[in-house]
Amino acid sequence: MIQMGMIVSVIAVIxxxxxxxxxxxxxxxxxxxxxKYALIWAAIIIGLFVVIQVxxxxxxx
Length: 61
Hints:
Elements: H1 2-21, H2 24-27, H3 30-55
């Protein structure tokens, strides 16, 4: 069940990023700028994931 939540979260983040990049400011960046911002967001998300995993933070039901 935890894996299903992670999959849904990843899909939601990808969908949000796609919707966010359709805004007018991102259109002026070009492909290189969009890829740069995508890599920055990926680093932030992966960094948060690693911090949560290393810290042992768990949500109990």
